[in-house]
Specification:
With 271 residues, this protein is mainly alpha-helical. It is built from 14 helices and no strands.
Length: 271
């Protein structure tokens, strides 16, 4: 009984570490400036105000930022996941020379910090004339070693009898992938899609570097513009803008939570 009580205490403490900052962000977004700086701090506003959201939306072209982030997230996620699935299938089911060497190179790519590739990618994009374009924002990031690794490891856990039966029935590789492998991999596929979408949505450094006009900025970069506009005077407006950026990903996570838990559980049971 004492052990169970200690476990609950630890779980509540860990949850507070993660939920606390999010709770403070939400409460600050609805506070008047005077409540934000008062001491002792107010844990919830006395009177909810939506003015911070209006000011945040008007201080920068958030409607354009939202469109850009949506286009980049949808297109980038689709291309990255498609690339990862096809590559993972090849590593899991096909035989070709240098297969192990290539897979070790993929593993090695996971060890390379993303900032190392910023300069080569920028020079390539500049040479192609893709600065300040959707192509420049999306194309350099369509390869994901992590997503490829996750999908490949999951494909290896699937029963080989099913894919063998598909081959006996005359199904090609693409048909086997689409009709057999992916339906069996739905929880893991959804997990990879959500992780990739969150990464695309929250990407800050690359959009900041490869764009130079407000019409091509994304929401994370827009928060920087908002902070420059507001300075340190009104953190309520800045927190409201941050909440606007976080809200879509929180909704997607809540919708896909069941599949994500299923994917993690499936990987644990079959690993």
């Amino acid at each position: 009984m004492k052990v169970r009580a200690l476990q609950y205490v630890v779980l509540v403490g860990v949850a507070a570490v993660f939920i606390g900052p999010l709770y403070w962000l939400v409460s600050t977004a609805f506070k008047q400036p005077a409540e934000i700086y008062q001491w002792p701090p107010s844990w919830w506003p006395d009177h909810l105000t939506w003015e911070n959201f209006t000011l945040a939306w008007k201080a920068a072209p958030f409607d354009r930022f939202f469109v850009n982030s949506t286009v980049i997230t949808v297109a980038g996620t689709a291309l990255k996941v498609t690339n990862a699935v096809l590559t993972a299938y090849a590593f899991a089911y096909l035989r070709f020379p240098g297969k192990k060497v290539l897979f070790f190179l993929v593993l090695g790519a996971m060890m390379v910090p993303g900032h190392v590739t910023l300069l080569p990618n920028y020079l390539t994009v500049a040479t192609l004339g893709w600065i300040n374009t959707y192509a420049g924002l999306i194309i350099p990031g369509i390869g994901s070693a992590f997503a490829t690794f996750l999908m490949r490891q999951h494909f290896l856990t699937l029963p080989s009898e099913v894919t063998d039966a598909a081959a006996v029935d005359g199904a090609g590789h693409l048909r086997t992938l689409w009709r057999v492998v992916l339906p069996m991999s739905r929880p893991m596929l959804v997990t990879v899609v959500v992780i990739t979408a969150v990464e695309e949505w929250n990407n800050f450094v690359w959009p900041l570097i490869v764009t130079n006009t407000a019409s091509m900025r994304t929401l994370p970069v827009g928060l920087l513009i908002l902070k420059d506009e507001e300075g340190l005077a009104n953190w309520g407006t800045i927190m409201a803008g941050t909440l606007l950026v976080l809200a879509p990903m929180l909704v997607i996570f809540l919708i896909a939570q069941r599949y994500i838990v299923g994917g993690i559980t499936q990987g644990a049971l079959k690993g």
